[in-house]
Design a protein that fits this description.
The protein is an alpha+beta fold. It has a single domain, classed as Alpha-Beta Plaits (2-Layer Sandwich). The chain contains two helices and six strands. The strands form two sheets. Strands 2-5-1-6 form a four-stranded antiparallel sheet, with helices on one face. A two-stranded antiparallel ribbon has the order 3-4. A hairpin with a 2-residue loop joins strand 3 and strand 4 (48-52). Helix 1 runs antiparallel to helix 2 (69-80). The longest helix is centred in the middle third of the chain and has 12 residues, at 69-80. The protein is elongated, with a radius of gyration of 17 Å. It starts with a strand and ends in a 22-residue tail after the last strand. The model has no long low-confidence stretch (mean pLDDT 88).
């Protein structure tokens, strides 16, 4: 099992969500986060331009079986792409175990039904 964390533009979240749905990745968590990077955003409030040093992004946290890692990463990468600085990052971590609280299932079976 692997944990995939993707930091993407907030504006691309719906595209990524749709792409993940098409490959049957329907269970994940996401968070609104702020970070500092090379790109900076300017905001206009009452006619005054403010340069912000923090950038709004969305962090997706997805646990998948090893067989689903590549297609999940490709779906995120293709749907979050704009070609501009600040498109985001994808991180992949090894997950030692997972337990479904309700049934006590462990490992891959705790993530999804057996056939997926």
């Amino acid at each position: 099992m692997k944990k995939i964390e993707a930091i993407i533009r907030t504006t691309k979240f719906d595209d990524v969500k749709e792409a993940l749905g098409k490959i049957d990745i329907e269970w994940y968590s996401y968070y609104d986060v702020r970070g500092v990077g090379k790109s900076h955003e300017s905001r206009i409030f009452r006619g005054v331009v403010y340069d912000t040093s923090s950038i709004e992004r969305r962090l997706l946290s997805i646990i998948v079986r090893d067989i689903n890692v590549d297609k999940t990463v490709q779906a995120i990468q293709q749907s979050a792409y704009t070609g501009e600085t600040g498109d985001g990052r994808i991180f992949i971590y090894q997950v030692e175990d997972a337990i479904r609280i309700r049934t006590g299932q462990r490992g891959d079976e705790s993530l999804y039904d057996k056939e997926k």
